[in-house]
UniProtKB/TrEMBL annotation:
Superkingdom, taxonomy of origin: Bacteria
Name used for this protein in its record: Magnesium and cobalt transporter CorA
Primary location class: membrane
Keyword tags: Membrane, Transmembrane, Transmembrane helix
Family: Belongs to the CorA metal ion transporter (MIT) (TC 1.A.35) family.
Organism: Veillonella seminalis ACS-216-V-Col6b
Listed Gene3D superfamilies: CorA soluble domain-like, Magnesium transport protein CorA, transmembrane region
Coiled coil spans: none
Length: 318
């Protein structure tokens, strides 16, 4: 899907065709087909293969500087389910005339811009727009991390009452999401540092015009991203320690159950041994007593079983 946006007299105009796209326009590509990529290639002279780079799910965050465009790839968070999160590459192109975004799917990162809900957002202020997208990405990571933390607390409460495999699978899914977030945030931070260093390069000023307020915004983005990195590392450690703790608890509970069953087995072996001895076809005590000998043997086995049970209980085997 290809859509074109442009600010005219402070208003965001979205009902534009590709033919209407002029200088200062924002071209948004979401899972584009080959025809749309070819059309953008003709308009911007960006090679189609480069445009397709952002459509690779395994693409890492990086910056490429060419003569007629700057290509920035960042990884943005994506919600896959109640307990599943992922990251998706977002390609951003800055050309002398256009601002281009390429992504495999629609994202919450661009949603406020598509609805003109971000203050000081203008399609023709390309550098500031880039930093605003980065800032939105960092804040969205922080929001998802808070959701993961709350979900972890809920699962912990459930595990305190009952240990089900479903809860552990949910924790495993959250741990995997944390791994994706850690990798994305660190590579995004590298991209931000690289862009900050580009401000002093004269050869990119025609593509990356950075004013004082833009530098302040980029520094805010870097701080926000670092905060997200610290939070994801802290939550990852908490989640890992919690999984290890509950694994130890389950193992300890299993040991207690096995110890109890072993004690019961020992107690039951006492009457089994006595009945086995009195069941052989040889002379045994009380044999001449007839029917009166049977309850006496039963009483002896019960007394011995109680003695063994009390001994095991006092030694913490039961």
């Amino acid at each position: 899907m290809l859509t074109v946006y442009i600010h005219e007299e402070g208003e965001l105009v979205s009902d534009l065709t590709v033919a209407d796209a002029g200088k200062g326009s924002w071209i948004n590509l979401v899972n584009p087909d080959p025809d749309e990529l070819s059309l953008v290639n003709i308009m911007t002279e960006i090679p189609t293969d480069v445009l397709k780079t952002a459509l690779d799910m395994e693409e890492r965050s990086h910056v490429e500087i060419e003569e007629n465009y700057i290509f920035v790839v960042i990884n943005i968070p994506a919600l896959r389910g109640s307990d599943s999160y992922d990251t998706v590459p977002l390609g951003i192109f800055l050309t002398p005339d256009f601002f281009i975004t390429v992504c495999l799917e629609e994202s919450d990162v661009l949603y406020p811009f598509l609805n003109n809900q971000v203050a000081t957002f203008y399609t023709f202020k390309k550098t500031r727009f880039l930093f605003q997208i980065m800032y939105r990405t960092a804040t969205l990571f922080l929001r998802y991390l808070q959701q993961i933390n709350r979900r972890t607390d809920d699962i912990e409460i459930q595990l305190r009452h009952t240990t089900k495999n479903k809860d552990f699978f949910q924790l495993l899914e959250l741990q995997k999401s944390m791994t994706y977030f850690t990798s994305a945030l660190k590579t995004n931070g590298t991209v931000m540092e690289r862009i900050l260093r580009l401000r002093s390069h004269e050869d990119v000023r025609h593509l990356l015009k950075m004013y004082e307020e833009d530098e302040d915004l980029l520094e805010d983005v870097i701080i926000e991203n670092k905060q997200a990195i610290e939070m994801v590392e802290m939550y990852s450690n908490i989640l890992m320690n919690m999984m290890n703790a509950f694994t130890s608890i389950i193992s300890n509970n299993l040991n207690l159950v096995m110890k109890f069953l072993a004690g019961v087995t020992i107690i039951l072996s006492v009457p089994t041994l006595i009945f086995s001895l009195w069941g052989v076809n040889v002379p045994v005590p009380f044999a001449e007593m007839g029917a009166e000998g049977f309850p006496l043997v039963i009483g002896i086995s019960v007394v011995l079983s109680l003695i063994v049970g009390i001994f095991l209980w006092k030694n913490d085997f039961l």
